[in-house]
Design goal:
Radius of gyration of chain A: 22 Å
Distance between the termini of chain A: 33 Å
Helix content of chain B: 25-40%
CATH superfamily of one domain in chain A: Glu-tRNAGln amidotransferase C subunit, N-terminal domain
Helix content of chain A: 25-40%
Strand order of the largest sheet of chain A: 1-2
Shape of chain B: globular
CATH architecture of one domain in chain B: Alpha-Beta Complex
Largest sheet of chain B: 11 strands, mixed
CATH superfamily of one domain in chain B: Amidase signature (AS) domain
CATH class of one domain in chain B: Alpha Beta
Oligomer: heterodimer
Radius of gyration of chain B: 21 Å
Structural class of chain B: alpha/beta
CATH topology of one domain in chain B: Amidase signature (AS) enzymes
Number of helices of chain B: 16
Largest interface: A-B, 52 and 71 residues
Chain lengths: 93, 481
């Protein structure tokens, strides 16, 4: 069980709106899922290296050369509110 | 129509190549079949009959200058970007999103991809039943009261119902293999990096892979041939030569070392009917000349919990891009933070919200080491398990899914029961190895898939072994419903 306060804190970190009735249910469900996940704590993995990529690729680089990109108008086509060739957003609060 | 519908994709491709059948005729047949069964099955979010016909005519006009796979209409999971055709990812967030380019996985079909439509899926590919779609549930063609599996449930149902001859799905924890198993078709998750992820809307980037969903193993090999390859636009795509996936398909399994994974066959929660089919297939491979023994993946019980940290952690990062700024839904609000919160509240469904919350929690200050860092180390252990198993065996055998197709609504309120569907498929994603689900037979009246796994980039051997399973299995593809 995750407390309502914790749920609200995490939802705020994720910029995710939750209705009051969703908060309690989310706390219960996350609690149950985390309880089943806690199993991995049983393993002593001191000194085991972590895996982030299964092929162990590191630092794949390409030459930093200009290439053709989408025209600005096209890139803005899917935007909810394009203004003067830019993405418009509400006041930054 | 019935004649063409009875063909595999490869058989149809050969007929189109020889001129016996036109690509346009094939597109007409696919469109007619969609008309006939889609109301019952609901495999698609968007159907594209005019695009299929128009492009098929162009393919016909390019006679002599085309690849074998180009003449066969394809179903595309709605997570892959398609230029000019809306791509929803099963989410309200992208209800009106029209991509500006095609996913790289489609590039070998060129400009004229004959597309039947965009297949339904669990929202952002999170789920095992396709019930988490904002566009209605897809029904399993074998029994319309049951789920097709997920998240690529629309792709699987479309192929099983003959709404197109083959489909692309994506697999992060089993999303190609489990629906393939539940719908009685073949589903392949290639080696991580084998197929470009560029233009694939990201779920968990260290696990996601595009894969073929087909009537049989030969079709799977041909569609893999079409989508595999290095792509400079995806820095995780592998710069490894693409072999000929069809050439050794019929070479048989004489002398091939097959390890039956004890933990995955005998695990609690594996239905007896599923276990029986898996054991029968192991026997069938032995009869075909393979050396069959017992294999162990000692850390497999930790794969599911590790996955449910790593995948949601990546989700919490990847889905941050849906913020109402550059594309997709925006709920207008007075300030930018309120706009973010309200847009994400309205645009995401329950499962997407759960995973974003879970991932954000696991990565948050004070919990990182206990969850995310520990899960990444578990991942290393699982890779070591596979390395050890592959020192003794060429391929590993297990069930694909612990159960046959379950009833619509049976698991929607129990996330943990739903997550358990992927208990046998997740280890391959964590290790990045290829794995394929092949129909092994029936449990009572529903199909059971068996899974084969092999080492990185050994798809030719994996497909050869899968072909032998197909020959040993008491199962033949037949259109449903």
């Amino acid at each position: 069980m995750i407390s309502e306060e914790q749920v609200r804190h995490v939802a705020n970190l994720a910029r995710l709106g939750l209705k009051d009735e969703e908060v309690a249910r989310m706390g219960e469900q996350l609690g149950a899922i985390l309880e089943s996940i806690d199993k991995i704590g049983e393993l002593d993995l001191e000194g085991v290296p972590p895996t982030a990529n299964p092929l162990n690729l590191t630092n794949v680089l390409r030459p930093d050369e200009p290439r053709e990109e989408l025209p600005r108008e096209e890139a803005l086509a899917p935007a909810p509110e394009p203004v003067d060739g830019l993405f418009a957003v509400p006041r930054i609060d | 129509m019935a004649e063409l519908l009875a063909l595999t994709a490869h058989e149809l491709a050969v007929k189109v190549e020889s001129g016996e059948v036109s690509a346009r005729e094939a597109a007409e047949v696919a469109n007619a079949r969609v008309e006939e069964v889609e109301e019952d099955v609901n495999a698609f979010v968007t159907v594209t009959p005019e695009i299929a016909l128009e492009r098929a005519s162009k393919v016909d006009a390019r006679d002599g200058d085309r690849k074998l796979w180009e003449g066969v209409p394809l179903v595309v999971k709605d997570v892959l970007s398609t230029r000019g055709v809306r791509t929803t990812c099963g989410s309200k967030m992208l209800e009106d999103f029209v991509p500006l380019y095609d996913a790289s996985a489609l590039r070998n079909f060129g400009e004229d991809l004959i597309m039947v439509g965009k297949a339904n899926m669990d929202e952002f590919a999170m789920g095992s039943s396709t019930e988490n779609s904002a566009y209605g549930v897809t029904r399993n063609p074998w029994d319309l009261a049951r789920v097709p599996g997920g998240s690529s449930g629309g792709s699987a149902a479309a192929v099983a119902a003959g709404e197109g001859w083959w489909a692309l799905g994506t697999d992060t924890g089993g999303s190609v293999r489990q629906p393939a198993a539940l719908c009685g078709i073949v589903g392949l998750k290639p080696t991580y990096g084998r197929v470009s992820r560029y233009g694939l809307i990201a779920f968990a980037s260290s696990l996601d892979q595009v894969g073929p969903m087909t009537r049989d193993v030969r079709d799977s090999a041909l569609l893999l041939q079409a989508i595999a390859g290095h792509d400079p636009r995806d820095s995780t795509s592998a710069n490894v030569q693409v072999p000929d996936y069809l050439s050794e398909l019929e070479d048989g399994v004489s002398g091939l070392r097959v390890g039956v994974v004890t933990e995955l066959v005998n695990g609690e929660g594996i239905e007896p009917g599923v276990r029986e089919v898996t054991e029968r297939i192991a026997q069938g491979l032995e009869d075909a000349g393979a050396e069959v023994g017992e294999a162990s993946l000692p850390h497999s019980e930790y794969a599911l919990p590790a996955y449910y940290i790593i995948a949601p952690a990546e989700v919490s990062s990847n889905l941050a891009r849906f913020d109402g700024v550059r594309y997709g839904l925006r709920v207008p609000a007075g300030g930018v933070h309120e706009m973010y919160r309200e847009t994400r509240e309205a645009g995401f469904g329950d499962e997407a919200k759960r995973r974003i919350m879970l991932g954000t929690y696991a990565l948050s200050s004070g919990y990182y080491d206990a969850y995310y860092a520990q899960a990444q180390k578990v991942r290393t252990r699982i890779i070591e398990d596979f390395r050890s198993a592959f020192s003794r065996y060429d391929v590993l055998l297990s069930p694909t899914s612990p159960t046959v197709a379950f009833g619509i609504g049976a698991k929607v309120d129990d996330p943990l029961a739903m997550y358990y569907q992927d208990v046998c498929s997740i280890p391959a994603n964590l290790a990045g190895i290829p794995a394929i689900s092949v129909p092994g037979g029936l449990s009572e009246v529903l199909p059971v898939g068996v899974q084969l796994m092999s080492d990185h980039f050994t798809e030719p051997m994996l497909l050869r072994a899968a072909r032998a399973i197909e020959q040993a299995a008491d199962f033949r593809f037949a259109l449903k419903p």
